[in-house]
Write a structure and sequence with these properties.
Largest sheet: 6 strands, parallel
Helix content: 40-55%
CATH topology of the largest domain: TIM Barrel
CATH class of the largest domain: Alpha Beta
Number of domains: 2
CATH architecture of the largest domain: Alpha-Beta Barrel
Structural class: alpha/beta
Number of helices: 10
Number of strands: 10
Strand content: 5-15%
Oligomer: single chain
CATH superfamily of the largest domain: Glycoside hydrolase/deacetylase
Order of helices and strands: HHHEEEHEHEHEHEHEHEEH
Amino acid sequence: MRVGLKTSSTVFNLIFFNNINYIPQKQLIFTGIKPLIFVLKRLITLALFCCFQLDSSAQTINNAAVLARKQVPILCYHQIRNWRASDKQVDKDYIIPPATFSAHMKMLADSGYHTILPDELYDYLTKGTPLPAKPIMLTFDDTDGDQYTVARPELKKYGFKGVYFIVFTNINKNKYYMTRSQIRLLADEGNVIACHTQDHTNFKKYTDKDWEPQISIPTKKLETLTGKPVKYFAFPFGVWNSAGLPELHKRGFKAAFQLTDKRDPDDPIMTIRRILGCGYWSAETLDYNIKHDFGHPVLPAKPV
């Protein structure tokens, strides 16, 4: 658990200055022992509070426990539109026809899957909090407009919720991307809005000058737009490096999502796996891949 300076400052004011305001003015002249005792009590209380915060901040996630828990299937979708003659085969990993997307959602509903959101996943991975039967997470990257016009009604049909990883410069970019009001409505309807960087540049290439404009600033703007905290992140292109993960922790993210690479054994909560909901996968193929890509926990290595 992390507590920021703003929180600590607020509590200090409650403990110390707010209480001092209730002392009769004449007692603030420190000529007797009682005012000193009062101040000492407040300072001791503050010291105990600070010790508690330091202890809480020092708490770390049990990475072995996270890795040992069965992975929850997480699907990643991008464009939801019919293929064009100019689309290459590799493009079809990221472009799913609306009819195929509809078949995917129907299969999930008919199979008894229940969508979960990142807070539920985080509590399960870090604390073992139980999840509903057959949990699954639906994620959407890049701010494509058809995620609102096509995916949203399909999800609502089955009572599903989704996670939308927003590239901030794509908002209102042109008619193919979501508007600010659409993103705000998705958040108001109980979906999660999360960060996918400022302009979808490669996370592995970030240097010190990039963290603020690529991650911190768009995150704050998304929080202003939705009126809700933004606590989750997805790597552009699904690529990441271990050296950059501490920067996500520094910025208060609870978890981050990649694609199909192995999780970082030293930071699995920041390298959660997803699979693409490929445009050329039938519902049956999707069902097979869900069961085989997320079926087993990572077991500890056997001693040599």
